[in-house]
Amino acid sequence: MTMRPLKIAAMSLALACSSQALAGPIVYTVNQSIGAGGVTGTITTDGTIGNLDVTNFVAWNLLLSIPGQSFALDQTNSVVLSYQSGFYGPANNDVTATAQNILFNFDGTDGGYLGFQQGPYSGNHYWCNATITQGFDCKAGGQTVAPISVFSAYEFQAFRGNVVIATAAGSVPEPASWGMMLAGFGVLGATLRRRRAAEVAPA
Question: Are 176 and 19 spatial neighbours (Cβ–Cβ below 8 Å)?
């Protein structure tokens, strides 16, 4: 009989912990230094955890900058590009998300690529992460930012390993999750009190 409340408490806690990944869109903050330039702003996904496809990015607002130049990208004037096996569009194992971060594996072996660019294949106004050299914009093993329309005018920063490129703006449980956790702890506490009382009761 005493195991049932414990199971309920455990289930409540498990649901509370997993609900963050199912809570809908996640807004991630971008603050990347790339050479003398960088990228700042936000990226919003549909909440997918694991490998990301271009379709999982629902909105973005990014300011690209190099000394003396800047350009703003959002979903109305630009596109998301991913890369695998010689073409753009599908997911690749180098772009992943958790509830807290978006990561890119710069040591990946599947031709990983993630870029935000004004128009597909335009070569204009872009930020990209790549494991292999892209002929028209990106260098291998790092991030490239080019807020202007000249290929040679960009900044590059090399990276190794699986690197956080964006962090969730609010990595805390939502009110419903807090409620479930508190209920779980309450049931757990009541169960422990009953056990203790049963142990000290005279035979």
Answer: yes
